[in-house]
Amino acid sequence: MEETNQTLVKEFILLSMTYSPFFQTVLFIVFLILYMFTLLGNICILLVVIMDRHLHTPMYILLGNLSFFDIVYSSTTVPKMMSGLMIKESKISVQNCIVQIFFFHFFGCTEAMLLTTMSYDRYVAICIPLRYNIIMAKSACFRLISGCWVLSVFYSLTHTILTSKLPFCRVDRINHFFCDIKPLLMLACADASLNENLVTLITGFLAVSTSSLIFLSYVFIGIHLVKVRSAHERRKAFSTCTSHLTVVFLFYGPLITRFLRPATNDSLEQDRQSALLYTTVTPVLNPLIYALRNQEVKRSLKAIFHGKKAIRNQL
Predict the structure, then answer these.
(1) Interacting residues of 118 by C-beta distance below 8 A, sequence separation 6+
(2) Which residues form a coiled coil (predicted)?
(3) Which CATH class is domain 11-314?
(4) What SS3 string covers 148-197?
(5) What does the pLDDT look like over 214-273, one tens digit per residue?
C-alpha cells in the first residue's frame, strides 16, 4: 500500500457571484428582497391552509406542503449565497458542506414528488370526481406525503453518504455559490466516477419518472376535458391545472438540464445561472401563481385579513 502525504481539506471557499463591490451590494439587496417575499408569500399560504378549515382538503394540504418546502429549500442556499456577497471569502466546513448537500437534495426531491402527487390529485378530482373523497381521503393524502418524505430521505442519503466518503485535498475552492455535488466531486482527490454516474442515473430516473407521471396525468385530464360539454367546468379545470403546470415548468426546466449535463467548467457556469432560478426566483413565484389564480385562497386571505382588522377595531 502506498502512502501519500496529502493534506486533507477541512473547509471550502465558496465562489462569489461577482467581485465588484457595487454589483455585490446590488445583488445582495435584490436577493434579500426576493428572499423576504419568498418567506412572506409562502408563510401566508401556509397560514391560510392551516387556519381556514374549508381548505383542509387534499389539494390545499399539498399546496401547504409545497409552500413549506419552498421556504426551507430557499433557506438552505440563499442565506449562504447572500453572505458570499458581503464578505471577502465565504467559507464552509466540510461537515457543513455535506449537511447542506443533504438538505438541498432532500427538499428538492420532496418538492418534485409533491408536484407529481398534486398532478395525481388533479387527475382524480377532474376525471373521477365521484370517487375523489374515497381515493384522496385525508389518510391517503398523508400517506402520499409521507411517502414523498421517506423516498426523498433515501435519495438524499445515497448521494450524501457516498460524497462524504471521498477525500478532498489540495484545492479548496468550490466552483459554485453553495455546496453542491457536481462542483464538489471535481475537488475530490480520488476516483469519483461512481458518484458522478449515480448523480446522473438516480437523478435522471427521478426527473424522468416524476415528469412522465405528471405528463400522463395531464394527458388523461386533457382527454377527459375534450368530452366535457360544460364550458364552466372546463374553465374551472383549466384554472387549477394551469397554475400547477406553470410551477412544474419553472421547477423542472432548469433542474433537468442541470443534472443531466456532465460536470465541466462550461456546464458548471450554466449550473450557477440555473441555480439562481430554482433557489431564488421559483420559490417567490409559486405563491403568486397559486394565490393570484385561486379564488378560494384569495377569499381566505381577505377573510383572515378583515377578521384581524375587525378585532383590532373592536379593541
Answers:
(1) 59, 62, 63, 66, 244
(2) none
(3) mainly alpha
(4) HHHHHHHHHHHHHHHHHCCCEECCCEECCCCCCHHHHHCCECCCCHHHHH
(5) 999 999 998 988 887 777 777 777 777 888 888 888 887 766 666 555 555 555 666 677
